[in-house]
Amino acid sequence: MKKIDLEIAVGFFLLIGIFSLAYISIKMGKLEVIGGKGYTVYAQFAQSGGIKPGADIQIAGVTVGRVTGIRLDKNYEALVSFEIDEGVKLQDDSIASIKTSGLIGEKFVQISPGASEKFIAPGGTIRDTESAIDIESLLSKYAFGKI
Amino acid sequence: MTIYDMTVCIRAIGAWVIDLLAEMGRMFIFLMNAIFTVFRPPFKFRMLLRQIRFLGSKSMVVILLTGSFTGMVLALQIYYTLRKFGSEAMLGPAVALSIIRELGPVLSALMVTGRAGSALTAEIGIMKITEQIDALTSMALNPVRYLIVPNIVAALIAFPLLTAIFDLIGIYGGYFVGVKLLGLSSGTYFSQMETFLKLEDIRVGLYKSLSFGVIVSWVCCYKGYYTGYGAEGVSKSTTSAVVLSSVFILIWDYFLGTILLR
Asked: What is the DSSP string of A4-73?
């Protein structure tokens, strides 16, 4: 009986602990346990403007995926990879643009749906992109009167 | 002041420094010895299980209590500060970040030190003064393998899990105060938290709690293993184990924070 008590106590503690750890990492840290829940598409931006992996991708304000990686491609442009949820199809004339929530908030990617009949296949590329708006350069243009 | 007085003074300083260095060296050798023994079979799973229960399961109630009240008081205080700037919406991220990065690992380590670390030192210390450790050695049983290694491994398993429980309970304690008592909307509390909290933050908390596990089990076992003579020796080493562990935890927390923050 004593032996079972020990094992139950340890098992109970381990289960609760692991549950808490998993809950925090998955729910709040957005840890990807099961990959392949969505598909990957790419987009090239002339200016990625400080977007980071994990940033949201939104269509009409609804989060449909997240940024998985950013690297520099051969043309010195930023190649950003998106993971889009399964079931969300993107027309091949969709426009991806990098936006900021609020004036100094988090960066996110907004996709404006197109009207084409064709959809982007997994691993495809969004051709139309809009770079991040550089608020500093806009401000300096305004301040020095170049508008 | 004569030359003789000065020599006495210098001698005292010298003796103190030599003692300190010898103590540090003994502690380091003790840790290395334990770490080498961890990887050498036979492994004592039964002892490990017992120590996980002692360090982990039995600390859960204390962790639940301190975690919930830490989250609640944090939410209360941060709310009144944020209200001055009209940015109550940041309450969720502020509570979650400070608990997960800082307060969770540190406070749960301090609580376990007080609850289990002191008992550990007393237990090993009494085994030492009643010559049970010498008895183990004379039977060709390695006391480090029987007494020290299970504690260090159990602490490595138990500390991160206790910290995770503390974090979760703390965040929900903050939720209770922020949403139920102070009237924040529940969506704001959690959605803002998910935007600001990165996996990086959780990893920082995890590294901290792992290293605190090593520190607490190491210092408490060491203090018990090299205890003084008699009941007074055990009581002294128990006190100094708790004090030294707590001081180490707070100092190491600062340095780890600067390293991991970059």
From this structure: HHHHHHHHHHHHHHHHHHHHIIIIIT---SS--SEEEEEEEES--TT--TT-EEEETTEEEEEEEEEEE-
Nearest-neighbour CA in chain B from A14: distance (Å)? 7
Closest residue in chain B to residue A17, using alpha carbons only:
B161
**Cis peptide leading into residue B42 (ω within 30°):** yes
Q: Which residues of B touch A29 (CB under 8 A)?
A: 197-199, 201-202
- Domain contains B1: no
| Any domain includes B113 | yes
Does residue B90 belong to any structural domain of this protein?
Answer: yes
- pLDDT, tens only, B159-188: 999 999 999 999 999 999 988 888 887 777
Chain B: residue nearest A101 by CA? B195
Q: Please list every residue in chain A whose beta carbon sits closer than 8 Å to the beta carbon of residue B201.
A: 29
Instruction: Kindly report, residue by residue over B116-142, the tens digit of the pLDDT.
Output: 999 999 999 999 999 999 999 999 888
